[in-house]
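Our preliminary data section would be incomplete without showing what the modeling component actually yields. Below, a chain of 113 amino acids is followed by its predicted structure, encoded as tokens that our downstream tools consume directly.
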Amino acid sequence: MESKAIAKWIRMSPYKVRRIAKLIRGKVVNDAINILHFNEAAASEPLEKAVRSAVANLINNQEAKISPDDLYIKELRIDGGFTLKRFRAASMGRASHIRKRTCHISVVVAEKE
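Predicted structure:
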């Protein structure tokens, strides 16, 4: 059995989130949550929320009792979202572009067989 959770429009650059996602991809859920909880990177907070949401979806939507110890992260995908385009005044009357990037986090949690 598997369950999915999606966190959309996270106001963080996808490559910053992917750097932290590499740490937990394929790990047991309890280990992944511990890694994210004690990591100081800002990207670990939305990742931890998405993993906890996927686990809660699986536990609450299944009739059979599933222990969180038997779950692992089957798939973890970080996709780019919409980019907010802003500008900043530059020298000689010009404008320099600022791109405020967003990302989507998709987590699939499955039971070990």
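The radius of gyration is 17 Å. The mean pLDDT is 95. Preliminary results of this kind motivate Aim 1 of the renewal.
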